[in-house]
Design a protein that fits this description.
Cytidine Deaminase, domain 2; DNA polymerase, domain 1; alpha+beta; 8 helices; 211 residues
Length: 211
């Protein structure tokens, strides 16, 4: 699971992972296969069976039956939980509404990477660096590592100018263009880079530096 992800495991492997071990002379996988073979419904059987029914299977005691049914109940509750409403980014104003009121007061320069999914919804905001915006603090490896890990479809960069003046410096522009090229190689496009000042902002996309 750690190497290839939970999706790579079969149903039997997932069950074996939950129950942990089998009785003497029997592996957890063998017990898992017995559970799946107990009923033609396979996994559907676990959704409806009782602890007593599971305990009738050789190798499944009270503890293992409880572990399995607890996992099934967690899955049911997750499926029944209402979808989480996420903020959607469609333009620079959407970003500034979310970040202006806090970032305008920062005394140091913060560089933040906002991860977006395919619908433009925010997955996560990641603080990349605190200090002056420079190539040493915004190395592409650090900027994009979380975007790759979270399978982001695109990113928006934000940083603040403690001076209150959001006009981009030459370093801001060069760094942005360098990160855009890296994003293109990773197939994670840079949607915008927004500089926040004191109640004002500059969108490098609107300024023509992000295309």
């Amino acid at each position: 699971m750690l190497r290839n992800g939970k999706q790579s495991l079969s149903s039997a492997e997932l069950i074996a992972l939950i129950i942990g071990s089998g009785p003497r002379g029997c592996s957890a996988m063998e017990v898992a296969l017995r559970i799946l073979a107990k009923d033609d419904r396979g996994l559907g059987y676990l959704a409806e069976c009782t602890p007593e029914e599971l305990m009738n299977i050789d190798g499944v005691g009270a503890a293992k039956a409880s572990q399995l049914l607890a996992a099934v109940e967690l899955g049911r509750r997750i499926a029944a939980a209402p979808a989480v409403s996420r903020n959607v980014i469609t333009c620079a104003q959407d970003v500034t509404k979310l970040y202006m009121d806090t970032m305008r007061y920062y005394k140091k320069e913060y560089f933040i990477c906002v991860l977006l999914n395919a619908k433009g919804e925010i997955i996560q905001s990641v603080t990349i660096s605190v200090g002056d915006l420079s190539s040493s603090l915004t190395h592409p490896r650090e900027v994009f590592v979380e975007a790759v890990r979270r399978s982001a479809s695109s990113v928006v960069f934000i940083h603040n100018h403690p001076s209150g003046d959001p006009q981009p410096s030459s370093d801001d522009i060069v760094t942005t263009q360098r990160l855009i090229k890296v994003g293109e190689l990773l197939c994670i496009p840079v949607v915008d880079h927004i500089i926040i000042g004191d109640g004002r902002y500059v969108s490098l996309k609107e300024s023509g530096y992000v295309t």
